[in-house]
Prior knowledge:
- Residues 16-109 form the GST N-terminal domain.
- Pfam families: GST_C_7, GST_N_2.
- InterPro entries: Glutathione-S-Trfase_C_sf (IPR036282), Glutathione_S-Trfase_N (IPR004045), GST_UstS-like_C (IPR054416), Thioredoxin-like_sf (IPR036249).
- It comes from Rhypophila decipiens.
- This is GST N-terminal domain-containing protein.
- This protein is α+β, with helices and mostly antiparallel strands.
- It has one domain: Glutaredoxin (3-Layer(aba) Sandwich), CATH 3.40.30.
- The protein contains 12 helices and 6 strands.
- It has helices spanning 20-23, 27-39, 53-60, 94-104, 139-142, 148-162, 166-169, 176-190, 203-216, 218-224, 240-255, 258-283; strands at residues 9-15, 44-49, 66-67, 73-74, 79-82, 89-91.
- The strands form 2 sheets. The chain has a 4-stranded mixed beta sheet, with helices on both faces. A two-stranded antiparallel ribbon has the order 3-4.
- The longest helix has 26 residues, at 258-283.
- The two termini are 18 Å apart.
Amino acid sequence: MASDSVPGMTFYDIAFRKPYRLNSAAPNPWKARYALNFKGVPYNTYWTPMLDITSTRKSLGVPACRTFPDGSEYYTLPVLIDSTNGKVSKLGDSFDIAVHLDQTYPNSGAGQLLPDDVDLDYTCPIDISFNGPPLSDRPEWREQENYKPWVRFNDQIDNAFTLHVQLMGAGMKWDEEVEKDIMAQFAQRAGVDDFEKLQVRDKGGRNKLLGSLKDTLKDLAAMFGKHGDGPYLRGAKACYADIIVGGWLRMMSVTLPEDEWAEVKGWYGGVFGRLHDSLQREFGKVV
């Protein structure tokens, strides 16, 4: 049973197919996991079955931070419950978790997650403004001048990858006993009668989407090349902007066929491959 009463930190991640550590793929929980490991703070992972996310989040008293197109509440993960300092902080959004960690543990681990010397000037070249940006359950942070560039960067990166998420859908691995129910839930959310309608499986269609994603990330790749071989935006030192991109790369590494993932890793001189490998090596521990 989920609990927020145990001292320490509990991180709520989505349980894909066992072993969870290998198949964990959701980008926003991975942003939070990278951030936790970056800060070097001890935490425990609560693996939450996909069909139990809504009830778990409600039981923790963490409000939904997103809505469906019809305005109804969308309960998703990650959630972080932090009770290490004599009070309980409940965070239900990956960006909010990063801000909380930076404010609460400023000198821990690898240092500052959200420094002020990062180039965040990326714009997704395809407009999906009709979907709107992800909503934060700490909206006041979005209005603070020092966080606005970070919020915008996060939104733009999410837009770029969300446009091409059909590449990844077919590769998500769920436990067989609940897989059909999960697929039916995805289909219902998308307003279609069959999960297959959300997939792109034919080679021609996938190549087209891959080409579109590559073009969409061209300007982003150039940003990573400004400091030699990187592998990060600032060169050798990582920050949360790298993690924002890295969460999506983690999803692709788990869900794409091997040949497609190898292709993505090699784009633009291998900038995304180096970024993914470095983040996994330095901050990819799954506890």
